[in-house]
Amino acid sequence: MISKIVDSAYEAVAPVGDGARIAIGGFGGAGQPEDLIDALIEHGSKDLTIVSNNAGNHEEGIAALLKAGQVSKIICSFPRMSHSYVFDELYRAGKIELELVPQGNLAERLRAAGVGLGAVYTPTGYGTLLAKDKPTMMINGKGYVLEYPIEVDFAFVKAELGDRWGNLTYRKAARNFGPVMAMAARHTIVSVDQVVPLGQLDPEQIITPGIFVKTMVCRSTPIQGALS
Amino acid sequence: MSQARRNAIASRVARDIPEGAYVNLGIGLPTLVADHMPQDKEIFLHTENGILGRWEAAGKGEEDWDLINAGKEPIRLSPGAAFFHHADSFGMMRGGHLDICVLGAYQVSMRGDLANWHTNAPDATPAVGGAMDLAVGARHVYIVMELFDKQGRSKLLPQCTYPVTGLQCVDRIYTDVATFEIREDGVYVPELIGDMSFETLQRRLPVPLSR
Fold first, then answer.
1. Partner-chain contact A104 B137, CB within 8 Å
2. pLDDT tier at B107 (50, 70, 90 boundaries)?
C-alpha cells in the first residue's frame, strides 16, 4: 500500500541537506507552510538557496529561517514588505545574496523546470536592469528575454486537503505558487490541513495530482480511514 | 496628495473603464478605482495572486488570511469569483487576456516608458513584484500619479531617469492637473483638470503636448 504521509514535519524535512535549493510556497503569509519551515530550522541545514515570492516578515516563517542564518541566497520578486526587517538587515550587511526576479518570470521559470523546458523567451523585463546581460530576441517585432528554468531540489507547499496518494486541493488564494513549485521540485513536501480517504476528493476538483508529491504531513489528526 | 484629489483621479479612471473589461488595479491609489466603479457596471477585477471577480475590503473581524489581494489585505468576494495559480495568473497578463491595468508611477516618458519600481536610492531594498509583467502584458496600461513631484518637477519626461519597468507600454496618464494620452505621434491632452491653462501646462512640462 502506498502512503506518502509521514508522521511529522521534522521527519518530512530530514532529507534536506546543506546547500539545498528549496522553493517555498506563499504570497505573503497566504500559502506559506510555516510548520515545514519551523521543522527546517530545527533540522538546521545550512547554506540554503530559497526560492519564494517574498522574504518573510516579522520573525516568522521565511524570516525566521533567514534569522537562523541558514540561507545564503534568496531568489524572489518582492523582498520588501511591512516588517521585513530581518531580510533588510541581512541584505544591507551583505550577508545574503538576492536574485530579484519579476513575479511572472519567477512563476514561469519554475513552471519551465516542472515541465521540462530548456528555457523560455519572455517579454517581461525586456529593456530593464533585470534583463541586463541576458540574451534577447526580437520575435514579430517584440523584444523577449531568455530566461532559464529555476530547478529546485525541494518544494515546501501548503495545501488544504490531500489523500494518501498525494492528490491535493488548495484553499482560496493560498494556492498561488503551490502547483508550479510542486511540479518544479524533485522532492515536494506538502503540509495539508486534513488528510481524507482515497476517493473522497472528486477527481474533477484535484489541483495538484499526486505524481508531483513525494511526502505529506497533516496539520490535524487524519480522519477515520484516511490512512488505509 | 489630498484625499479629494486622489478620489478625483480614481473616479476619472473608473469612468473610462468599459463594462466587461478585465482589469488589474495596482497597490495604493489604483486600488481606489474600484470604490468609484458603479455596482451595476459589471467589470472583472484581476489580482496577481490568483483571483478574478469582484471584491471589497473585508470587514473587521471577518478577515480570512487565505483570501487577500495583491497588497496582502484581506478581501470579501462577491459571487462569480475564480481562483487560479501563479503561472496562470501571469499568463493572463502576458497572454494579452487582461484588458487594462492601472498602476502608479515615479516617472513616465513621452514615448510611454514607465519607471515605477526603483528610485536608485542606495539604501533601498530592491523589489519588483508583478510590475514588469503588468507593464508589458496588459493590453492597455493606465497610470495614475501626481503630475509634479514634491520639488515641483514634472514626472512626465522626455526620458525616464529612474530604471524602467517597461518600454513604450503606457497608454494613458491620469494626473491631478490633466489627463495625457501617449500616441504614436506624441503626447495628447484630452482633458484639463482644475485651473491650469493648456499654455501654462505646456510651459511647465519638458515634453511637447498637443490637444
1. yes
2. very high
The answer to whether A102 contacts B50, with C-beta atoms less than 8 Å apart, is no
For residue range A66-83, what is the model confidence (pLDDT) as tens digits? Answer: 999 999 999 999 999 889
In chain A, residues with a C-beta closer than 8 Å to the C-beta of B165 are 128
The closest of B205, B151, B130 to B175, measured between CA atoms, is: B205
Mean pLDDT of B48-73: 96
Q: Considering B19, B42, B48, B63, which one is annotated as catalytic?
A: B48
The answer to whether A176 contacts B67, with C-beta atoms less than 8 Å apart, is no
pLDDT over threshold 80, residue A6: yes
Complex-level ipTM: 0.97
The answer, for B71 touching chain A at a CB cutoff of 8 Å, is no
Residues 6+ apart with CB under 8 A from B199: none
Q: Which three three-digit cell numbers place residue A65?
A: 529561517
Cβ–Cβ below 8 Å for A27 and B94:
no
Site from B46, B48, B49 to mutate, A interface, most A CB atoms within 10 angstroms: B49
Looking at residue A208, its pLDDT comes to: 98
Query: Could you tell me which CATH class the domain A18-100+151-218 is placed in?
Result: alpha beta
Domain count, chain B: 1
B42 is an active site residue: no
pLDDT at B38: 87
User: Min CA distance, B48 vs chain A (Å)?
Assistant: 9
Say which CATH number the domain at B204 has: 3.40.1080.10
The pLDDT value recorded for residue A228 is 75
Question: How many C-beta atoms surround the C-beta of residue A213 within 10 A?
Answer: 24
What HEC string does chain A produce? Answer: CCCCECCCHHHHHCCCCCCCEEEECCECCECCCHHHHHHHHHHCCCCEEEECCCCCCCCCCHHHHHHCCCEEEEEECCCCCCCCHHHHHHHHCCCCEEEECCHHHHHHHHHHHHHCCCCEEECCCCCCHHHCCCCEEEECCEEEEEECCCCEEEEEEEEEEECCCCCEECCHHHCCCHHHHHHHEEEEEEEEEEECCCCCCCCCCCCECHHHCCEEEECCCCCCCCCC
Write out the residue range of the structural domain in which residue B44 sits: 3-210
